[in-house]
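[job 4471] stage=fold_predict status=RUNNING
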Amino acid sequence: MGIPAQNSNSTSSATFDDALKESIASLNELVNASADRLVDDEFFTDVADDLGVLHARFRAHAATDLFGAAREATDSFPLELSGDLERLRGEHQHILGQLDVLVRSVEWISQRTLEDKDVFVLRARELIAVLNRHVAEEDRLFYLALWRDTGGEG
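[job 4471] inference complete, writing structure tokens
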């Protein structure tokens, strides 16, 4: 039972993951600057742009296996870690749902009350926290699988 061999898809997977992490960081930076910009329509245009890119990148992430391989590659994944892998995969739909809500909401939020804008920003911060935790757990799982595959103890 080894983890899937690293190949040219692994490089593209790393690129996808790096791009996903960059998108999360960009949205986080923008949302953290929101206190002074909630009355600025351009702020929500910037947020809409960042959310659109993040949405596309997370969809690409969710469509691939943890290693950038097809889902069938799970057969070679360490059995003792497969429960964690399935749990993380199961989170993809929930996260996409959160992203969908924010993408739809950002279209009209600039015309709403300040309180509605505050709630939108809180939901964006919640999504960022969920994404950061999710990506960190996937990274941890990848390195555990790699460690076990190269002879580390289980």
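[job 4471] summary: Confidence is low (pLDDT under 50) at residues 1-12.
[job 4471] exit 0
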